Amino acid sequence: MDHPKAVLFDAYGTLFDVYSVGLLAEQLFPGQGQALSVLWRDKQIEYTRLVTTSSEGAHYQPFWELTRASLRYACKRLGLALTAEHEQHLMNEYRHLSAFPENREVLQVLRTRGIPTGILSNGDPQMLGVAVRSAGLEGLLDHVISVDTVRKYKTHPEAYRLGVQALKRPASQILFVSCNAWDALGATWFGYRTLWVNRYRLPFEELGTQPTRTGSTLDDVLSFFE
Amino acid sequence: MDHPKAVLFDAYGTLFDVYSVGLLAEQLFPGQGQALSVLWRDKQIEYTRLVTTSSEGAHYQPFWELTRASLRYACKRLGLALTAEHEQHLMNEYRHLSAFPENREVLQVLRTRGIPTGILSNGDPQMLGVAVRSAGLEGLLDHVISVDTVRKYKTHPEAYRLGVQALKRPASQILFVSCNAWDALGATWFGYRTLWVNRYRLPFEELGTQPTRTGSTLDDVLSFFE
């Protein structure tokens, strides 16, 4: 099979480590940092689906707002008193998530080889701009695409279609990379070639569809170009 | 405000106790029964959303199949060896979930008052038929409505619309009852009057919309008719 002609990356969980907020969470709520960061993330994803499924955009809220709403929910659920100061602190941390260490080099190799790259993310444009800059990835990505344009979150086909439109190529020529199994599944359903980066050694979704390949770090992107 | 003219109930989690499989799960996998029943349920709901969001029905699988898929995922995730025999045993248990104890009486009171009632559920028709019979609720419900007709799960508006169509009344005249916060939210967004039965003392969703009322058991349905 031909090499992919372009590569799209998911952002949250794939380029940026959403669990890197756990350290601050642990400082603010000793003994609950991990539970909070996991529930916060799960609820954030759940909220993207609730607002997307429930209407054709009428209940859409930007990712930043859903991130705040899910933080509030997670704290209530865990019985943690979230002061306005805590909230601001945690949200600010979420704005500046750590990048996974191998990202830069993989993006640089792709750049050297002349492969167009982009982010296709649930994040809203402002969040993505700050995250890309603060992770030092500026200048290494040709496209930063937010689903905010269509007001529908992945795995909605309209969200995935934005990548095809930006890269002006059919999905079958584009490699879509995600560490989120549900995202790799949705992208595969949409028609992308897919790499599921299984960072946490989880099972893949049991819905009868497999990603094109499975890897363990972002380095495995390069195996598509060998 | 006028009394509601009809009452629709969610099935799984509301009339039927989805965690009643935990006892068998604990026998099969000692020490893991609760974790399995919680993850199984969470994943089942997640799968309804993934297949609904990802397409206009193209990736739909009936609830029975999603229930099986989510059981398989949950066992893999927890590192439990699910034999074919275990799977059959657990799925059979899911087919015959316990009903919450107060259900029969509430349905009987509504019947006495001449209020039309129905189930509006993600379950497929066969599952619902067996569950209603095995819970002894046959003859107490005027409508048993499955989203299978539209191949989209709640919280998709087409799924909620089935209730309006069956009862031939506007949503604002119908009380929708669910123990699932996301379902009470979706139904409220759609336009139903809603009762969230908060059996597990959880926070409500933080998405800016509240159910019409919140209760703690199904008995609270009757407060709408006082």
From TrEMBL, chains A, B:
One Pfam family cited in the UniProt record for this chain: Hydrolase
Keyword tags: Hydrolase
E.C. designation(s): 3.8.1.2
Coiled-coil ranges (or none): none
SUPFAM superfamilies according to UniProt: HAD-like
UniProt catalytic activity: an (S)-2-haloacid + H2O = a (2R)-2-hydroxycarboxylate + a halide anion + H(+)
Family that this chain belongs to: Belongs to the HAD-like hydrolase superfamily. S-2-haloalkanoic acid dehalogenase family.
Name this polypeptide is given: (S)-2-haloacid dehalogenase
